[in-house]
Amino acid sequence: MSTGDVAGRGSPEDIDETERLDCSAVIADVWLLLDNECDSHARARLQSHIDTCAPCLEHYGIEQQLKSLVSRKCGGEQAPAGLRERLTLEIRKTVIIRETRG
User: Fold this and answer.
1) Domain edges within the chain
2) What percent of the chain has pLDDT over 70?
């Protein structure tokens, strides 16, 4: 059974049932939720699954604590502009490759 893309890019028929979400898809998109990088509908789907799935809730909690720790320890530091630009380009390349192959 296809679960669609959790981050809000799935087809409308995939969006109707939160129980159809696969745990691996939720875990893959946990950082989108933590970083507020998904739309409100995807956020609701992810949160609904996390609220009813103990393993995903545990994973979400671990990632949330990791994000908080990194923020506390490295919060004042910023990457140099050149590094940020290179990372942005690499991320875009990865997304394009993933979309092309997917």
Assistant:
1) 17-76
2) 73
